[in-house]
Design goal:
Blueprint (H helix, E strand, L loop, with lengths): L3 E4 L9 H17 L4 E4 L13 H6 L9 E4 L2 E2 L5 H14 L4 E6 L4 H6 L7 H17 L5 E3 L4 E3 L24 E5 L5 H9 L2 E4 L5 H4 L6
Parallel strand pairs: 1-2, 2-3, 3-5, 4-5, 5-8, 8-9
Antiparallel strand pairs: 6-7
């Protein structure tokens, strides 16, 4: 049996982040020493109880202190950031970890996060899909970029200086990109259906009810 761990992480909301970040790091360092194969960490911007505001930033703090454990985002809430930023930061993290990276993605489930980023009551699944498609296009293509969607635009056509590398975004360490996983939190999940088409792996949230699990595959 291979063991892994998922951390929201969750703490009493009145605790200080500088204290809880240390504890969360120590938990993953211990998991690495105990032979755990994976550790995934979540993120929320507007929740004092779940105070990791960037899972990629948190995982970067562990890159050089862990040895074997694969670190994953659980998850990057795609509608809450620009796909160019996600592509660049995820690729950087993949290089820092030299491939010990799993890219967990989702539309994000915290409504106060959605509101703070202007996505409340919008079709976050559509934003999510456009965002990850653009991230993959950025990694697949060479600069300059000219990607236009309903929600995002990515271009460096007007400012690229190829001879000095300006206008290009780094590509991931893993080829063609890190393993991608998506959350499954609802029955008959459209996200899981889309993931299966692309060969991505689903991950079950801790609040996925047992009777919903079977809805994600034919009986």
């Amino acid at each position: 049996m291979r063991l892994g761990t998922f951390m929201m992480p969750l703490h009493p909301p009145k605790r200080q982040p500088h204290e809880t970040y240390v504890e969360d790091r120590e938990a993953i360092l211990l998991a690495d020493k105990l032979g755990y194969v994976e550790a995934l960490v979540g993120e929320h911007v507007t929740d004092l109880a779940e105070n990791v505001t960037s899972c990629m930033m948190f995982l970067a703090s562990l890159a050089h202190d862990t040895k074997k454990i694969v670190l994953g985002t659980g998850t990057i809430n795609m509608p809450n950031s620009h796909p160019a930023a996600i592509a660049a930061q995820a690729a950087m993290l993949d290089h820092l970890l030299k491939g010990r990276f799993i890219m967990g993605i989702s539309p994000g489930g915290l409504m106060s996060d959605a509101e703070v980023f202007g996505n409340y009551k919008k079709d976050r699944n559509a934003i999510f899909l456009e965002s990850i498609n653009m991230v993959l296009d950025i990694w697949e293509r060479e600069a300059p970029y000219n990607l236009q969607g309903q929600f995002f635009g990515v271009t460096t056509q007007n400012t690229q200086i190829p001879e000095i590398g300006q206008g290009a975004i780094i590509k991931p360490y893993q080829k063609p990109h890190p393993p991608i996983v998506v959350t499954a939190v609802a029955p008959h999940s459209k996200g899981v259906t889309e993931a299966a088409k692309r060969g991505w792996t689903p991950i079950s949230a801790n609040f996925l009810l047992p009777e919903w699990v079977a809805s994600h595959w034919p009986r």
